[in-house]
Amino acid sequence: MPHLPPATSGSLRERFVADMAVRGFTDKTCKDYLRTVAGFAAFLERSPGTATAEDIRQFQIRQSEQGMNAPAMNSTVAALRFFFNHTLDRPDLARKLIRLRYPRKLPVVLSPDEAARLIAATTCLKHRAALSVAYGAGLRVAEVASLKVSDIDSRRMLIAVERGKGGRGRHALLSPALLALLRAWWQEGRREGVMRPGGWLFPGQDPARPITTRQLGRVVEAAAVAADLTKHVSPHTLRHSFATHLLEDGVDIRVIQALLGHAKLDNTALYTRVATRTVRTVTSPLDRVMARIEPRETMGSGAGSGG
């Protein structure tokens, strides 16, 4: 993990790390938060424990002047708010941090045919199984990477996601097709000597460690090229596609929210904007109105229709 500067090392850093650990933050979140607070300390040139409201104001002005985009600034706000609220017990400072509003881009979504082509374009069974978990269960890439063999509950047909975003655990969908694919991968992995009882479901080059999110990203990029997909595809595209396809199939949006592990329904509702099949099933009120109009009234009347 990144280290805070010497002026803030020791008990303050330890408290910060402990506050994140007790809430079940992922390693990536801990690293990101530590990096953010270290950057704030570098800006102050002193311990962030001595920060003032004016320091926060000047820090955010500096970020804006440097051209930092709104999502990155809001990520900084999240880290610093946690630090001020929980580690320093200074909610008055946390309230001074400004979150920026910005229009959310519509997520890139694959059609079912494109998803099939992407998964089929993988070069080995491990990669095919990993991408199938991302799409078939709607998992985040970090959640896929951190799965263990013991997380697959074939009796209840569930995948246990122990450490989701924000430390929230949940149960994800395990379909019969996905279970069959995972069993095939388990058998192959055992023959290759990389799968261990209770070990990682998708081991990295060192079987004692899981596959990295970066490697999964490269797998998706290579498969997209091989599948001749023109869309910009990432591992998260598979999660977006999972949610959108469920919505188009008529699954209740609150069920989708639970499967995705979204804390807020607003985040899940974003997929209603890209569920094109759902839109196409809606009858426009114009159709009903036009059905009430006589055919001659809709065609115009020759001489009076000009201009």
UniProtKB/TrEMBL annotation:
One of its GO terms (biological process) is DNA integration. Pfam families: Phage_int_SAM_4, Phage_integrase. It comes from the Bacteria. GO terms for molecular function: DNA binding. Residues 105-284 form the Tyr recombinase domain. Belongs to the 'phage' integrase family. Residues 7-88 form the Core-binding (CB) domain. Keywords: DNA integration, DNA recombination, DNA-binding. The keyword DNA-binding applies. This is Site-specific recombinase XerD. It comes from Muricoccus pecuniae. The lineage of its organism: Bacteria, Pseudomonadati, Pseudomonadota, Alphaproteobacteria, Acetobacterales.
